[in-house]
Write a structure and sequence with these properties.
The structure holds three protein chains of three kinds. Chain A is mainly α. Chain A has one domain: Phosphate transport system protein phou homolog 2, domain 2 (Methane Monooxygenase Hydroxylase, Chain G, domain 1), CATH 1.20.58.220. Chain A contains six helices and no strands. Chain A is elongated, with a radius of gyration of 19 Å. Chain B has 18 helices and three strands. In chain B, α1 packs across α18, α10 packs antiparallel against α15 and α10 packs across α17. Helices cover 66% and strands 5% of the residues of chain B. By secondary structure, chain B is mainly alpha-helical. Chain B has two domains: 136 residues, no CATH class; 218 residues, MetI-like fold, CATH 1.10.3720.10. Chain C is an alpha/beta fold. Chain C has a domain of 170 residues: Rossmann fold (3-Layer(aba) Sandwich), CATH 3.40.50.300. Chain C has a six-stranded mixed beta sheet with strand order 6-7-8-3-9-10, sandwiched between helices. A four-stranded antiparallel beta sheet of chain C has the order 2-1-4-5, with helices on one face. Chain C is globular. The chains are: A mainly alpha, B mainly alpha, C alpha/beta. At the B-C interface, α14 and α15 of B face α2, α3 and α6 of C.
Chain lengths: 218, 416, 252
């Protein structure tokens, strides 16, 4: 049902729209970053870095707006939960954006000496995280928890893949000491993707609170 | 012209109409008051002749130190005849007769009263104020045109001559007419007073108030606060409102039919008059009291009820005191109307010639408006003045009553 | 947790129209319960059933059971005046009697015959005014008209008047709707203070006020009790969609 006060309704809608914009921008950034990993395209990487600024701006814009609505409208119940969650979610989204930027930056530095096996595995890991992000944002925008379990399971998969990837890279490093800087970058990128997964898990907790009025017990 | 300018002009026009209306109504009131006062003030004064009289013991056939009783029974006729004969030695018998007519015809009673009040003048000569006849009174007050032909005058040329001589001798004076306030009605304008009618009015209004005020208040409280809303209550309400609009003479008929014929109450009395006027006043007070009760905010009732007050306590502690100013105003308006009422009194015989001043409500009485009506019917010129004077008194009475009502309203009015 | 007032299957009719549908709601002792809901939802009618103020309305019919400390308040043995001594009420518009401040407070104790002695009455008036947080402001002018006070003071005077008859429960029907924010917050603080000694049931249109002062909240809609529960729960995550829509302003 819509608010009796149309202006209030439109204010809440604006926040939702900005949130959607931030989410879709983030998904695009993620895709670009993974492409850089494949192509080592420095221009594209620079574009990712530049676009991150827009995400940071959106973060501030949304939090200013939410702050204003809280002050002026004293929202309660689901409106309050939405605004409260928004504040927390945009922080996670902004952090995800930072991680993506660092992936894009580091990806250009990985030399061709590294076997493509590793970059492929990393891309796969990134795709898992990307899907997870997409699903989580869908949960948020559609206000449903049906896929929540799937999303948290994907985080477990990411953690597992990240673990094996690290040990594989370490094993490779031991044999080839000339690729240590590149390997380090690989590890850092893997770690960033794993962190993205953690942030998504946080977001899912907020979505759970938004919908259920309380944080999930597990 | 713009719309706003039009509206402002309309307002200006309206203001002008308003001021004009107020001015017009004030003008009417001013004319009325001026007219009545100019013709009525004179009624409070009377013309007297300062005449020196020798209270001859022999002529009066009285002993020294005669008692009041003896003086009362004495005949003053000889004394008067003697005095006139002595004072006007140069005139013929017929002329003296005419001179006598300059005086009020009951000189003997005036002299008698003077001697009763001042017995020490027995056998002495003193100046006595003797009331002039009503015609001389009118001439002296200037209400009479002396240029009228003699045959159309009540006072002939010879009498005027004598009167002028008196004036020259400074024997004629205009003094405060205390008789007007102390005596009852009379056939003679010289002796007629308002005392009996004022007292009659006071008794009537008192009875009217004592009957209508409590009955009206109890009826209003019951109807407004206790009676359940329904068809019967509505019917009663409509009938009370109708009753307030019934012509007053109908109430007189009611009094005649029920109070006089059926209950056999004495006719022409203030008691019956008061009862009849209270029939008339009741609906007015009930309507005023009910609307005042209705105007008491329900929040006050709720406040008292919520504290555990009974309905009776709510009404008598809170609602009625707040409704009192309005009720009092209504009561006074009703009573003021009753004071001025003549028609219903006509039917019960309270418009009659009553000389005696009533001492209680069971004695025959006449009200002030009825007195005014009676006097206005009289042919003597002197009564015209009396009529206006009585109207002034009545108006003053009403003004006082109105001020009292304003005073009470201001005193008991409370803001919430 | 002890229940002070228990209502069971309460139905109220105005003539043929049913104003309250089968409401069962309990009120905890020494707690503030807020009744919220859109205009005409029956919350005021419900409140007025609790001290039988609806008795005055001829066409009003009450069915069901309301008990105060286990006593059926609609039973024949209960005198309504006695009941109202136990359950006081404060109204929407401050309605002090057009009498002195002293008489306003003393009126209730006087008609219930609490005391004949002047000193005892003085004490009752003083303690009541103190409890209502008004004594310091008016102690030098107890003979002034109650109506000469400001709106907020008048409302506190009405609270003092209600307290003076030592009730167990105080019903408040939108007590702050005619007051400015400062006066409102003073009254709200007072309500929080008063709940130590009294059970308070308050009808309010202000969501914020219900949230600020009450421990329990009940949401009424079209004569039905939609939801009741802890205030903190109702205002963060109500169970019922209608409640959520109402408190967030989604229907007017």
């Amino acid at each position: 049902m819509k608010h009796a006060d149309k202006f209030y309704e439109s204010q809440l809608n604006t926040i939702n729209e900005k949130l959607v914009k931030m989410g879709s921008l983030l998904e695009k950034q993620f895709a670009s970053a993974l492409e850089v990993l494949d192509s080592r395209d420095e221009q594209l990487a620079q574009k990712v870095v530049d676009n991150d600024h827009e995400i940071n701006l959106l973060n501030h814009e949304i939090s200013d707006f939410v702050f204003q609505i809280i002050a002026m409208r004293q929202p309660i119940a689901d409106d309050l939960r939405f605004l409260f969650c928004t504040i927390k979610i945009i922080r996670d989204l902004e952090r995800i954006g930072d991680h993506i930027t660092s992936i894009a930056k580091k990806a250009t530095r990985v030399s061709k000496n590294i076997p493509s096996e590793f970059t492929e595995k990393l891309t796969n890991l990134g795709k898992q995280a990307s899907i997870m992000t997409h699903d989580a944002l869908n949960c948020l925008f559609e206000r449903r928890l049906s896929q929540a379990d799937k999303i948290t399971k994907r985080d477990d998969i990411i953690d597992e893949l990240h673990g094996t990837f690290i040990s594989e890279v370490l094993a490779y490093m031991k044999k080839h000491d000339d690729v240590i800087p590149d390997s380090l970058s690989l590890i850092q990128m893997s770690k960033a993707i794993e962190r993205v997964g953690d942030h998504i898990t946080n977001i899912m907790e907020e979505v759970h609170f938004l919908i259920e009025g309380q944080y999930s017990s597990d | 012209m713009t719309n706003l300018a039009k509206r402002k002009k309309a307002e200006l026009r309206f203001r002008f109409y308003g001021i004009f209306s107020v001015f017009l109504s004030l003008l009417f009131v001013a004319i009325l008051i001026f007219n009545i006062c100019s013709s009525g003030i004179g009624g409070f004064y009377k013309t007297i002749f300062l005449t020196s009289i020798h209270f001859d013991q022999k002529l009066l056939n009285l002993e020294d130190n005669a008692s009041e009783e003896q003086i009362r029974n004495a005949s003053f006729r000889k004394l008067i005849k003697n005095s006139f004969d002595e004072s006007f030695k140069d005139y013929s018998k017929d002329e003296i007769k005419q001179i006598k007519k300059l005086f009020y015809r009951k000189i003997d009673i005036e002299l008698k009263n003077f001697l009763i009040n001042n017995p020490e003048f027995l056998n002495k000569t003193t100046k006595v104020e003797l009331t002039a006849s009503t015609h001389i009174d009118q001439i002296h007050k200037g209400n009479f045109d002396r240029t009228v032909q003699e045959k159309h005058r009540k006072v002939n040329n010879f009498q005027l001559e004598i009167y002028d001589k008196f004036v020259e001798d400074q024997k004629v004076k205009k003094v405060w007419n205390s008789t007007y306030f102390t005596s009852g009605d009379s056939r003679d304008p010289e002796a007629a007073g308002v005392a009996s009618s004022v007292k009659g009015s006071v008794f009537t209004i008192l009875i009217c108030f004592l009957l209508s005020f409590p009955i009206a208040i109890f009826a209003s409280i019951y109807l407004q606060e206790f009676a359940k809303a329904g068809k019967i209550t509505d019917l009663i309400e409509i009938n009370i409102n109708n009753l307030a609009a019934v012509p007053s003479i109908i109430f007189g008929l009611l009094g005649l039919g029920i109070l006089l014929n059926f209950f056999g109450l004495p006719r022409s009395t203030a008691l019956v008059g008061g009862i009849v006027l209270s029939f008339m006043t009741l609906p007015t007070i009930i309507v005023a009291c009910r609307s005042s009760l209705r105007a008491v905010p329900p929040s006050i009732r709720e406040a008292a009820l919520a504290l555990g007050a009974t309905k009776n306590q709510v009404v008598f502690h809170h609602v009625l005191p707040l409704a009192m100013p309005g009720t009092l105003t209504g009561t006074i308006i009703g009573l003021a109307r009753a004071i001025g009422e003549t028609a219903p009194l006509l039917m019960i015989g309270m418009v009659a010639f009553i000389m005696d001043i009533p001492s209680n409500p069971l004695e025959p009485a006449v009200g002030m408006p009825a007195q005014i009506y009676l006097w206005s019917e009289s042919s003597e010129r002197g009564f015209i003045e009396k009529t206006s004077s009585a109207i002034i008194l009545l108006l003053m009475f009403l003004i006082v009553v109105n001020f009292v009502s304003v005073y009470f309203r201001k005193k008991y009015e409370k803001k919430w | 947790m002890v229940n002070s007032i228990i209502t069971k299957n309460l139905n109220v009719y105005y003539g043929d129209q049913q104003a309250i549908h089968n409401i069962s709601l309990d009120f905890l002792k020494n707690k503030v319960t807020a009744l919220i809901g859109p205009s005409g939802c029956g919350k005021s009618t419900f409140l007025r059933c609790l001290n039988r103020m609806n008795d005055v309305i001829d066409i009003c019919r009450v069915e069901g059971n309301i008990s105060l400390n286990g006593m059926d308040i609609y039973s024949k043995e209960i005198e309504v005046e006695h009941l109202r001594e136990k359950i006081g009420m404060v109204f929407q518009k401050p309605n002090p009697f057009p009498k002195s401040i002293y008489d306003n407070v003393a009126y209730g104790p006087r008609i219930h015959g609490f005391t004949d002695k002047k000193e005892e009455m003085d004490l009752i008036v003083e303690t009541s005014l103190k409890k209502a947080g008004l004594f310091e402001e008016v102690k030098d002018r107890l003979d002034d008209m109650g109506t000469s006070l400001s709106g907020g003071q008048q409302q506190r005077l009405c609270i003092a008047r209600a307290i003076a008859i030592k009730p167990e429960v105080i019903l408040m029907d939108e007590p702050c709707s005619a007051l400015d924010p400062i006066a409102t917050s003073i009254i709200e603080e007072l309500i929080t203070d008063l709940k130590k000694s009294y059970t308070i049931i308050i009808v309010t249109h202000s969501m914020q006020q219900a949230a600020r002062v009450s421990d329990k909240t009940a949401f009424f809609h079209l004569g039905n009790l939609i939801e009741e529960g802890d205030t903190s729960k109702i205002f963060t995550k109500p169970d019922h969609q209608k409640t959520n829509d109402y408190i967030t302003g989604r229907f007017g």
